Amino acid sequence: MLSPAPALAISAAGLPAAAPQERVLDTADVLSRAARAELGKTLDTFGADRVDAHLVTVNRLDYGLTLPQLGAELLERWADAGAEPNQLLFLIDSQTNSAAVVAAPALSGQLDSSLLRSTARTTMAQPIRDGGRYRQGSLDAMTRLLTVLEAGEDPGEPVTAEVVTQPTNIPTKEETASSNAFTWVVVLLVLGTLVPMLTWWVFSR
User: Fold this and answer.
1) DSSP H/E element including 54
2) pTM to 2 decimals?
3) Residues with Cβ < 8 Å from 173, sequence gap 6 or more?
4) CA gap 173, 22 in Å, rounded
């Protein structure tokens, strides 16, 4: 049986030279057809705010290249090809299950760098790391930035579920030590009462 060919490393040069019409470039093949269609429609809604948004997935980055660097290089490449100034990229690396959100300089007044980092590292990456939920992570990130672009309040980072310890009948080390001490006290009290009584009974016969 033939083994699958190794995935080729991706750089900006391996992606379209100009901003494509399709909104989703799933080069990592991690999204279903339905997910690509849904995400494409969501990306289309950025057009109402005059933002040209795309989602790019890769499964292996070129050596030494980071996901944010890939996004920046891709935006520069598309700008040189005459792309709209308000470019926004959502990026996913399926090999490391990491994400990045990169915006063109024209959008810095609406989407600052701290918001983009927070959206990528938490809103987008958390569902991706949690079982490879690429569609959900992308939708959550898009929804968050759309809210901000429409002058709404930033929903913020997702709440991390706290692990709640369930009650147990197994005593703790402290409870065991306390229980043993109480037992010894009771034993000593009983012996302190019985020994004098037995001594009196023996010698009184």
Assistant:
1) strand 52-58
2) 0.75
3) none
4) 62
